[in-house]
Amino acid sequence: MRVTVTGATGLIGRRLVERLLERGDEVTVLSRSPGEARSEMAMLVRELAHRADSPATGAVSGPPPSPAVSGAAPAPVSGAAQVVVEAWSPQEEPAPADALANRDGVVHLAGEPVAQRWTAEARRRIRDSRELGTRHLVAGLRAADPRPGVLVSASGIGWYGDRGDDVVDEDEPPGADFLATVTRTWEAQARKAAELGVRVVLMRTGVVLDRRGGALARMLPFFRAGVGGPVAGGRQWMAWIHLDDAVAMYLAALDGAGWEGPVNAAAPEPVRNRDFGRALGRALRRPALLPVPALALRALYGDMAWIVTTGQRAIPTRATEHGFPYTHPQLDEALRSAVREEGPRAGCPRSYTFLPPRLGTIPSDFQGESGRAGQTSQMTIPTTDSTRPVARPGFSP
Q: Is omega for the bond preceding 146 within 30 degrees of 0, making it cis?
């Protein structure tokens, strides 16, 4: 397949690009910071090339090419997967039609991080990055000829608002709080691609578990120190999903003609906040008993504390109907997998940047990008059939 990806340097985006390349797809990355994206993709290329050349991986053998990053026009490379990085300012202009034409699909992940104090300006950025960014993406799709067949657009489990103990699936109406309102507008913009004959899938993504990014990365230092615990009593529900399963579900939505409309990208069984904290303590063999009062969170983070003091008991009805094969459906095993340390491979650069912990989590992976604009880059790697499976302080989301 030929796939265009926005938000490719975030937690889900980077792993998604990795999986696309592993299976031999050609990837175009749209980024408002092409310099940063080029560096991230170059690291990924080197890691995959090293893995392909290592007998221990079971991947295709043979000497890997040197990763080439240049401003040259893209050219097909026989027997290799291709990555092209192009500049796009999502809040200012339509997506470049030439980066969307002749593609099989688009995965839209970009958006302003929600995990920040919700000042008036932050609220505007959170809203505009999703509404305007998606509107401009659809404008690019309108100009593309031929158009991609499918748009898989990220969304958030926050669509439902705070529903207490109610079980919610994809047929439930949206809530009325800030994030629910943003998500409703966000999805409405993505749905407009259906008017162009594009199949649209809206991935309402839960809290993604991976030790290198998102909510879990923020919690780990505190839980490892034995000072983690439940938030605001811990009764609020949490819809969670392991990173491997989140990416696999995005790929299933990209590939499967029957996937359409909203999909709760979450594990089959949501859990209460306090149970998540206990499970993480078990995975780390540490106590998880110290509570974090809601009042303290509100004093520190204002309205943004709402996302950790409330939750959704969301279940993945659509994914279940499609027979999606979860790799990590049980929380205890998922957390053991997510926190497992992986040592660096000899001769292989580390591929992740570790950032200082910050409070807050968001329903899915939307990290802002920064860097220089106006550059197009290309790099190639040998194809393989291998598969392998950024923070809040010491409490569960």
A: yes
